[in-house]
Amino acid sequence: MTTLSEDEVRDLLARLLAEIAPEVDLADADQDGQLQEELGLDSMDFLNLMIGIHRETGIEVPERDYPALSSVDGALRYLTARSGPGSVAGTGEPG
Amino acid sequence: MRPGTGGTPAAEVWRRAREAMDGLPAGGLNIAHEAVDRHLGTEREDRTAIRWRGRSGGREDLTYHDLAELTARFANVLEGLGVERGDAVFSLSGRVPLLYVSALGTLKHRAVFSPLFAAFGPDPVRTRVRLGRGRVLVTTQAQYRRKVADLVGDLPTLEHVLLVDVDREAAPRGTQSLPALLEEASSRYRIGPTAPEDRALLHFTSGTTGTPKGAIHVHEAVVAHHATGRSALDLHDGDVFWCTADPGWVTGTSYGIVSPLTHGATLVVDEGELDAERWFSILRDERVAVWYTAPTAVRMLMRAGADVLPRGPLEDLRFVASVGEPLHAEAVTWGSDALGTPIHDNWWQTETGGIMIANAPGQEIRPGSMGRPLPGVEAVVLAVDEDGAIRRDATGEPEVCAPDRTGELALRAGWPSMFRGYLDQEDRYQRCFVGGWYRSGDLVRQDADGYLWFVGRGDDVIKSAGHLIGPFEVERVLLEHPAVVEAGVIGVPDPVAGEVVKAFVSLAAGRAPDDALRRELLGHARSRLGPAVAPRTIAFDQDLPKTRSGKIMRRLLGEPEALERPDPHPATDGGPP
Tens of pLDDT along B465-509? Predict the structure, then answer.
């Protein structure tokens, strides 16, 4: 898997959110705030976001890692690390 | 329809249940007294009533003593605002302690509490506050800013907006700080005379057509909240109890507030959304004894896999129940393996106010079945003909189905938590009853041992994540978009939510059915309705199946037959709209 840059992850999130919740703008969210709260997403939306990430990148986010993706910044950190060299998609271990 | 007073076994059950109530010192029955004030002066006064866990790690414990004082202050705030007996107080907030204080304080003041789900968009909020003639809205800064501020001019009855998370100086124009008001108010309040038939709660539920229905519940409902807390959930004095439902839905009020408090339980309240690891840690760390949750949550926990399961047994967990939609057999078994106790499915509705049918404590569980009627509940399966009308026997009485035949679940009217009306819709209320039976609208069959099995809804109402969604409310918002000329909305099967909302739309001439428009419509629906009600997917169809009279036939939407239907106007359908 190629390493994803922060910009690429941000683009990915924006693209997926445009499908799931087209009314939101990622740029409106406080980057450190709770993504669901900031953008008005419910649990199903969040689950669909995780499914979309898996579909697009092969990274399967295990449920216990969901809290790590609860903010935009957290999701950027997590997904860039998970896509990085030496990481194995689906292990649940960032980096 | 009024509660039965006859000498039947059911009436005897409820007579005894009424005796378990404390009653107001001056006579009468008030939910807030039974849930809170009756514990004052007993060993329960200093027990934790509400144990709150914040989304980001905060904690707050309120004892019964604290809760009595805070709800007294809230009642005094309402008094000071000129709110009168029977006036409607709405809430639109996540699960924070002041939401619970507002609910019980409203009941103390004998006003009517109407909770709204925080994931509702501005449209459902406006519709419900208007219908309910809300005078007060308790909400948060963020909810106010996003959904309410622009609506205020459109809500002529709404006089007071109280924000739970702002201090006096920071309250936006047109709002007040609830913490500041509470601080100034007296902590002593004497509950006025409350008749058991006085209105207490207003819960909105969705029908197939028209506006949402405001189901009215009265203070006497507490008799059933208390009794069924024991008979269906095995609640005992001092139990730690966690109901995962939001108070925006009836489960989160009847069992997320009232029932456990009447039993002197400690109520766990989690502000966060579903998160498997967090939930298992709450079950373990808070030493939950009785847990009431929903199939959607159970399915999400099952998906989470073994690596987030609690390490070691949940030693304090004694009883687990689920409600909202049928719990599939695998989930019942998963409970035994993962939680150490099977999951007991039960059934009830907004209109019933409390659990009616259950896989009850101490009885055999039939996985996949909703269980059997609780003591005090008389249930039958009534025969229905093809257009949904109840069949009559030779004497004109409703015809009861033989075992294992599918019909409509009906309950003998008269239990204490039965709804007493749909607000301003008496006809619609009367249509719920036939020959002394309340018609549930759910199709079921009953096996020879009395266990009931859910078959489907008798109407087009969508059941997503355990919540009812009226297709009309969604279609109306889609039709307001200039590109849409026709819309039909249905539920489609979903492995997690049971059903999710799917919309089929026909476009105005000149509009291309492309991805950009699909996203635009999805965004339009979500910003108006909120994620809990809006469609998850939208399909374009320029030839929606209709009856001869032009009504969209929702049950044919999305079916292969609908795509290749040879006759768009089958003779069996039709009639006036």
Answer: 878 888 888 998 999 899 998 899 999 998 888 899 999 999 988
Residues in chain B with CB shorter than 8 Å from the CB of A40 are 119, 146, 530-531
Q: How far is A34 from chain B (nearest CA, A)?
A: 9
The residue written with tokens 């266990």 in the block is B451
User: What is the Cα–Cα distance from A73 to B175, expressed in whole angstroms?
Assistant: 33
Cβ pair B558, B502 in contact under 8 A: yes
pLDDT confidence of residue B203: 97
Cα distance between residue B42 and residue B64, in whole Å: 10
Chain A residue numbers with beta carbons less than 8 Å from the beta carbon of B528 are: none
Q: Return the pLDDT at B559.
A: 67
Strand-pair partners of B266: B240
Give B224-255 pLDDT, tens digit per residue.
Answer: 999 999 999 999 999 999 999 999 999 999 99
Which residues of A fall within a CB distance of 8 Å from B95? none
Contacts of B359 (CB under 8 A, 6+ apart): B321, B344, B345, B346, B365, B366, B369, B370, B371, B372
Q: Report helix, strand or coil for B77.
A: helix
B522 touches chain A (CB under 8 A): yes
Question: Is there a contact between A64 and B524 if contact means CB atoms under 8 Å apart?
Answer: no
B64, B148, B497, B502 from A28: Cα distances, Å: 41, 19, 28, 28
- What ipTM did this prediction achieve? 0.84
The whole-angstrom separation of Cα B82 and Cα B192 is 15
Cα–Cα separations (whole angstroms), residue B150 to B115, B126, B154? 20, 10, 8
pLDDT tens string B546-555:
877 677 888 8
- How many other β-carbons are positioned within 10 Å of the β-carbon of residue B12? 13
Nearest to A23 among B56, B497, B526 (CB): B526
Smallest Cβ distance to B274: which of A40, A43, A48? A43
* pLDDT of A1 over the 50 cut: yes
- How many Å apart are CA B253 and CA A90, to the nearest integer? 40
Distance (Å, rounded) from C-alpha B111 to C-alpha B113? 7
What is the rounded CA–CA span in Å between residue B10 and residue B571? Answer: 46
- Tell me B348's DSSP state: -
- Test mutation, A42, A50, A61, chain B, max B CBs within 10 A: A42
Q: Which residue of A has its CA nearest to B527?
A: A23
For chains A and B, CB pairs below 8 A equal: 68
Model-level pTM?
Answer: 0.85
CA dist B558 and B537 (Å) reads 12
